[in-house]
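Box S1 | Example of a co-folding query
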Amino acid sequence: MDIDWSQLGFHYTETDYIVRASFHGQWVNGELQGEWTKPYATTDKYIHLHLSATVLQYGQEAFEGLKAFRGVDGKIRVFRWEENAYRLQDSARGLKMAPVPTELFGRAIRMALERNLDYVPPYETGATLYFRPILIGTTPRLGVGPGVDYEFVVIPSPIGPYYPGKFHCTSFIVNRRVDRSARYGTGPFKVGGNYASSFRATEAAHLMGYDCLFLDSKTKRYIDECSAANFIGIKGNEYLTPRSEEILPSITNKSLMTLAKERGMKVTRRKIRLEELADMQEAAACGTACVISPMDKVYDPDKERTYHFGSEPGPLLTSLYRTLQDIQYGRVNDDHHWCTVI
Ligand code: PLP
Ligand code: COI
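Box S1 (continued) | Returned holo structure for pyridoxal-5'-phosphate
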């Protein structure tokens, strides 16, 4: 194995094993009943899938993203995996798929880690072992509706930072022409369709040197989130983050809200008008992949207005970033019991 850990970006690097489990069931009085197999590790990264499977025909797919960190003490810590298990269960219910039990999810993550220990990047390389659990519908079906068979797979990959460079600013552009999800749609679920539907906006933004900031789909007045991260803003000593029916409940954001409260900041989740960016001193995207990615500016092309936050990450977001990473890398006590040490 020859990996230059410090050069890794957010790209797939194959490891030795993936972990799989299958569900077979049937609908009984509107309820999907069935059994999951035990998880097993395999070196085969391909699956034999019927081309009429519900994942291919009707988009029955959900996924997760979580990380294992090699700490300052050499121990490996998996961050808040139970939260990912609960969210995948919500996504499964959102698409009428079989939820993966928490215990099975945890065993699969542990197995994926233990079978790929050599792929956990060393401490201080800025890289981590990322797990991409996916849940797909495998029943061949032409009639429009959910299937009865599902495959759960955990795909590990060592990754570097989501945005190139360790902790630096990214520029965002507002898009009013594309909705990544609809109000009361699948926004709160982590399903592949939300990402495919955002590609028109994100690819256009990338071509212009930006990442994309989405507004609420109904009024286009309020900040929703980024294509793969929640939004946070700092106004004085206040931590502001959007309340919206169509955004993904971020585990990173939830953790940062706890840390912000503990340091005496006011934490507010509410609808945030785009123009309120003018009153914020700091702003960022936050998520598992990007941790905290500060924004230097948000450009609104329709209104020909740019909101500036400075070219360097601001003090409060920098400090929250450090505290979160200190916990993840075992540099401070994990008082919240967020990390599972393997
Ligand atoms: N919002 C979207 C659309 C995402 O894809 C992600 C990434 O998972 C997040 C927010 C952040 O969520 P988390 O912090 O749980 O990774
Ligand atoms: C994550 O932050 O883990 C994600 O899954 C976001 C994205 C890369 C799809």
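The two ends are 22 Å apart (CA to CA). The mean pLDDT is 96.
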